[in-house]
Structures are given as structure tokens and as C-alpha cells.
């Protein structure tokens, strides 16, 4: 077994939690998320990657109801970030998820886009819930690009948008996909990337408004 299997990485997270004195009830919640991660990955022997973690963190909509689960978003996101921290440094950074509970790219060319988008949203006057939705979807898209070897938006095109949405569609309901499209489109318009915004229309997602 390699040191980057899902089972090994998740085990390191649990060991770090015990070592830091976390309550058994909290660790139990992590174990529940770990079981979900193992199901998502296809078993504990699957290799853990940052892309796998990003996909897992994004699987927060109920396939049965199509509704967004804030609890799953929180639980899955914090587990993925702890696993990512182990992958990067060989140790679990228990402060990582507190600094950022949403997906964020690491490579500079994409991280700067996220930072500027957040700054714009902070001064936009939009409702806090809307800001949260826009920020979350931007983070998911940018980390998806990163996991597929794209290091800047200059290297992205409509095919990446279609690939990202296809990945979501395999797990999300159609109503959730409409929300995803409406939350992603403002980022592309703000960037002046009409080609990326137009690609959303090619994904066959019906818009929520005429």
C-alpha cells in the first residue's frame, strides 16, 4: 500500500485529531465523512489526489432531493482540506480548514483570480448568500482547472467549462445544475471571458430565468 491511499491519508487525519485532543464525538463526525470519501473514491485503497478531494468536497447536493446540504459541504470540505495538507507536506495541518472552508486554488495564476473575485464580491453590495454562492462556484471551477493541469485562465477555453459541468452533472440534479450555471456565469462576465460564459449554454442546462 502506498502512503497516499485514501485509507492511509484519512488514517493520518484521525491520528492528528486524537493527538490534538479532539473530542470523540467530533472524531466520529470525521469518521463518517471518511466512510463517504472511501465510497466516493471506490475504496480505501484508491490513491488520494487533490483532484479527488476537490470532487468529493463538491459532492454536497442530495441526489434524491437536489437540495444543497450545508452540513455535507462543511464536513466534506474540512476533511478534503486536511487530506490535502497531508498530501502537500506529509503532516496534517489542523488549522487549514479554519482558514478557508471553501475550495481555493493554490497555483498563483488561478489563486490571484480567486483573490480578485473575492475582493470584487466584498464591495459589490450583493446579498451575503449570493456572494457565498458565487465564491463557492468560482472556487470549485478554479480548483477543477488546477487539478486538470491548467495553471492560468489564459490556458482555459470552453471545453474546460463543459468538462467541469459534465463532472458536476454526473453527481448533481438538474435543478442544482441550473444553480451552478447561474452562479458561475457572473465570474466569466466579470473576467470579460464571454467565450467561457457562452460555453455554459452549450452544456444544455436550462436557465432559471428567461
TrEMBL record:
Judging by the UniProt lineage, the source's domain of life is Bacteria
Q: Which residues form the Core-binding (CB) domain?
A: 108-192
Record key words, sorted: DNA-binding
Q: Which SUPFAM superfamilies match?
A: lambda integrase-like, N-terminal domain
PROSITE patterns documented for this protein: CB
Which GO MF terms does the UniProt record name?
DNA binding
Instruction: Enumerate the Pfam families for this protein.
Output: Phage_int_SAM_1
Record GO biological process: DNA integration
Q: What is this protein called in UniProt?
A: Integrase
| Species name | Bifidobacterium longum subsp. longum
